Protein: DegT/DnrJ/EryC1/StrS family aminotransferase
Organism: Saliphagus infecundisoli
Amino acid sequence: MTDTLAIHDGPSAVTAADDGIFDWPIITEEDEETALSVLREGRMSDTDITKRFEAEYADWQGTEYALGYNNGTASLQGAMYGVGVGVGDEVVGPTITYWAAMLPCLELGATPVFADVDPETLCVDPESVAERVTENTAAIVVVHNYGHPADMDAIMEISRDHDIPVIEDVSHAHGGQYNGEALGTIGDVGAMSMMARKSFAIGEAGMLVTDDHSIYERAVAYSHYSRHSEVLESEDLAKYAGLPFGGKKHRMHQISAAVGRVQLEYYDERMAEIQKAMHRFWDRLEDVPGLRPHRIESEGSTMGGWYAPKGIYVPEELDGLPVERFAEAVVAEGSQCRKGCNSALHEHPLLDDADIYGHGTPTRIANAARDVRETDTDLPAAEGIQERCFAVPWFKQYRPEVIDQHAAAFRKVAENHEALLETA
Ligand SMILES: *Cc1c(COP(=O)(O)O)cnc(C)c1O
């Protein structure tokens, strides 16, 4: 192969057709049939299929309870209400992730407090969490970002030391493991998206999982009124049964539930193939300067379905080549690459000065005991993270000849990065 980069009119590293290697979710006649039967029988808004799906999901996760939601955002809010987050409370969690991990607490009258990112795992940095915890902290939210398990040993230690419940957002890591434990079962409650682009993908849907009956009961009280009579036992909840405490209805659509039952049957198998494919991609790049895999190597820990996979970028090893330019050159080679990851939530103006509910003061601090708003220097790793990571192709099938060509594209650009510096 000549070394002339495709961006400089050389030959592309990737010549093989994708042939569905990126397609997701994998939908077969079994999914189609079950979706159609829900429609034909008019059972879209019932809960019988959802309950079966919940029982199977709880069994698969290894939790006592699973509660289906209409989306992941709602499941996060249910988890927050479930652990008791309320007016004036602080919720500590990552600034680098999808907003739904944190923003639902605003409506509960609580205030999000953002912690920094660990530049290697891209998950919340436990040290930063510990620094941000106060006597007002009512919950810690962790996200296993882009499939990588967060440092749960350190997080759970903080939780125990301060008696603060932990909510695991598993939207990126269904089926992932941390030291032999299923992600979503280590903290007090797991909540997750199952929307069509996630690794467990069934359309707009979400799930809450827990072993804690009181969390489950409160989540049901908040937004699952039609189950009140079956679930609410505690007197302080049961006396208000019949109307949703949150004024919300978060029931899962039964087409999603039905498809979820089918997807769950095949998920372990499909996840194993994704893991094999993604490990092969990274193994081919082992000794390449400037690029590090974003994966976990320790025994008993996995990347689950490896949602939205990332790589860690070390510009110092590429003479300071900006990641944006690197990504452009990889795309020109026929592969997929994009600078950065989710942008920092604490930098968004909605979290700075928006008065969403008419408090006459910014919503973020309307009920808070102190001004929690971060300044530019408070979360230094988050400030620079967009220059230090990139998105890589998410292979769903183990097809070595295709995967190797994509890896070759990344290798070629890194090894010929000097040519990009000259033309930058
Ligand atoms: C997608 C996502 C959610 C929200 O899920 P929806 O199903 O889109 O409502 C929550 N947290 C994280 C980390 C996500 O990526």
